Amino acid sequence: MTETGLSFGKYWTTLQTHSLVNTYQMLANILRGSAIFSAYVGYKFHLGFEDLASSDQAELQHWINTQFDQLMQTEKDFLEANLDDATEAINLASYGANHALMSLGFNAVYEVQPSSLVAQLKELMIDQNQFLQQVTAANNESDTEKMTDDDYDF
């Protein structure tokens, strides 16, 4: 989940440079894949999270929020040290961190200012609801045939 949260700020330069059409498309594919991965990990996390006692859930959620706060501060420091104006890159990193948290089933906690780059990211990303719709559609038992030993006779 940290990959999702930390990579978005570093894509700022490429996302704002529209003359790199092939690079932009490659980055769009990477982000789409990252979004699917985040949704999957979030889905699996949420299944286990629901099995925890409420006190354990609160403790784990606090730990995750603390980790994200530390990671976001490190990312902010990195971006400010390496960019002349890191405002938009930090905004994208905040969007990525919120996306990762929401994939886990938690609330977004970082402020994100509306911008054209955030709008581009929103178009590329798959959210938890879209992922769950696909999982539900794929798990339709009427479309599934049970495997038998005969399936392995070649």
How is this structure best summarized?
With 154 residues, the protein is an all-alpha fold. It has seven helices and no strands.
Mean pLDDT: 82
SS content category: mainly alpha
Helical content, roughly? over 70%
Shape: flat
Gap between N and C termini = 41 Å
Order of helices and strands: HHHHHHH
Could you describe the 3D structure shown?
This protein is mainly α and 154 residues long. Helices cover 71% and strands 0% of the residues. It contains seven helices and no strands. The protein has helices at residues 2-10, 12-16, 21-50, 54-82, 87-103, 116-124, 128-138. The longest helix has 30 residues, at 21-50. The radius of gyration is 19 Å and the shape is flat. The mean pLDDT is 82.
Jot down its keywords.
single chain, 154 residues, mainly alpha, flat
Task: Please write out the topology.
Layout: H1 2-10, H2 12-16, H3 21-50, H4 54-82, H5 87-103, H6 116-124, H7 128-138
Helix pairs in contact: 1-4, 1-5, 3-5, 4-5
